[in-house]
Amino acid sequence: MSVVASVSDKKGKDPSIQPLVDLMSEGMEAVNRLILSKAGSNVEMIPEIARHLISSGGKRLRPMLTLALAEMFGYRGEGHVTLAASVEFMHTATLLHDDVVDESDMRRGKLAARKLWGNQASVLVGDYLLGQAFKMMVDVGSLEALRILSEASAVIAEGEVLQLGAAQNVETTEAQYMQVIEAKTAALFAAAAEVGPVISNADAAMQQAARRYGMDLGLAFQLVDDALDYGGSSADLGKDIGDDFREGKITLPVILAIARGSDADRAFWKRCLEAHEIGDGDLDGAIERLRQTDALADTILRARTFGQSALRALEPLPAGPIRDALAEAVEFCIARVH
Amino acid sequence: MSVVASVSDKKGKDPSIQPLVDLMSEGMEAVNRLILSKAGSNVEMIPEIARHLISSGGKRLRPMLTLALAEMFGYRGEGHVTLAASVEFMHTATLLHDDVVDESDMRRGKLAARKLWGNQASVLVGDYLLGQAFKMMVDVGSLEALRILSEASAVIAEGEVLQLGAAQNVETTEAQYMQVIEAKTAALFAAAAEVGPVISNADAAMQQAARRYGMDLGLAFQLVDDALDYGGSSADLGKDIGDDFREGKITLPVILAIARGSDADRAFWKRCLEAHEIGDGDLDGAIERLRQTDALADTILRARTFGQSALRALEPLPAGPIRDALAEAVEFCIARVH
């Protein structure tokens, strides 16, 4: 049976991340232990900040991809655990630097590290975690995995710089937006998945399929995230509705609403997102405009398209409970929006 | 003949970095070409900022160490050029992040990147250069070189966090200061030198000697730098006298002056460096206090001690023009202070 199904239009029980979590629970416990031990340092502030971030949760989707795509090919050893932890460190470093760049106050429902320890410490502890991530990758000893993850590291930063240029500019195009999310989010999902077959010595076609799956899942994930910022449950995300709006981020829902709105609508978005003149009721006004133009629905539609592509990418991979769980993870990421 | 000589008390001509520059000129041209090509990106701001930093000069001492310590062992190939460029990228990334953390306005006599492009771009372009640095190291394919340089990357960040904790605290001890400069400066000198014998397949004793040389040279270099901040020619350094003083940095000259001064002196340093209440004449007052307590002279004396140790570390390495040039580079770093 094909793993491709209509994404998130299944009847019956809601799709869940739980099967993947259950299958990877042993490996993820090892990842969490490694993360805590490698976040240690004689320099007091480092483990403090690292533990703050690490204990603040998040689903650890990226390291789970690394474990799952290695175990799927019967990987034996500890290398996948080490690579998974280094993927999470890369992600955590990015979050620390992102919050500084975006001047964010909150992260996953807690005060952002930069509000607690300052921008300076956030920059430097991010650098430290990135250094530790590379050290761990070197421990694993796969030059190909190192190549994939160091490439992702450069691409993520490039995407962030691109986003900075696009930030608070209502002229940003859909193509520019897609380029940004591919670099800043999907590239790490892709790399996290790709290194699984690589360290398992699976063949190049498997490596490419895993990469495609991670990339498309990452794109779907970010599109849904950007839609959720204007609606949906904030408890799931640990982020409040309207964060992107208040920070002047130009995401796909906004790009679609501007393209489809009137000149007066455009002036509204310009005032809120470029000039940061946001008054009472403006967030409601933004959400209303997104609804009128079908911008949220069409953002989700695009996420579904990438979700379908992620499911197709799974087809050549070995059938079994891991593949089924990876397919359900795609459905779950998209179903978050209901 | 031993390469150990009394550092910088030679009669006759001044010690110079020129012999090392001349010997490495061909390799450094290749390094510079590689740096410019790898600093490229479709994202406009990246090459702009990278070129600003790269063209603003500096002596490129670190990549020269990598080239010299590889060529000394007859290295054939391009790997040493690639590693040298990645060392310079690591250094440049550190400078970008440092300027953000220190809120510096100037770097090598030009406006700091953060003043021209903003803190956000400086953080992200630093991340990009670090990612590129790791990609280049992976291209060389030496896991041992990767281990050494990724370790340095984590240690540098750790040192910066430590410095942040010590910053603007006149209780900082000499031991804490030494720990900071070993991590934030000397670790990269050590790694840059160590990877030379490593990729040349020289034996472990050579690798250790190169590392020791780099470490001690780095310590001497930073001690002299910290002394120069309170006197000497600013044209040489592209930094103005009193930068550290205005930023509240607690360096060895200040630590010695506080330890040897009166309670009134201590109150003076506390006011200037902790409370940042600096008025006209305070920099002169600081320099006068450093002179009265022999703090600058003793800082230089410590630099000389590390310089001697760097020269001793060179002894087991192959004799010849490269070793002579590396010895003279030590003398040059210390002679900057006269």
Notes on the structure:
The structure is a homodimer of 338-residue chains. The first copy, chain A, is mainly alpha-helical and 338 residues long. The first copy, chain A, has helices spanning 18-23, 25-38, 45-55, 61-71, 79-102, 113-117, 119-140, 143-166, 174-199, 204-228, 234-237, 243-247, 252-260, 263-274, 282-292, 295-314, 321-335, and strands spanning 106-107, 110-111. The first copy, chain A, has a two-stranded antiparallel ribbon. In chain A, a hairpin with a 2-residue loop joins β1 (106-107) and β2. In chain A, α3 (45-55) crosses α7 and α4 (61-71) runs antiparallel to α5. The interface between A and B is large, with 41 and 41 residues. Chains A, B: This is Polyprenyl synthetase family protein. Chains A, B: Its cofactor is Mg(2+). Chains A, B: One of its GO terms (biological process) is isoprenoid biosynthetic process. Chains A, B: Belongs to the FPP/GGPP synthase family.
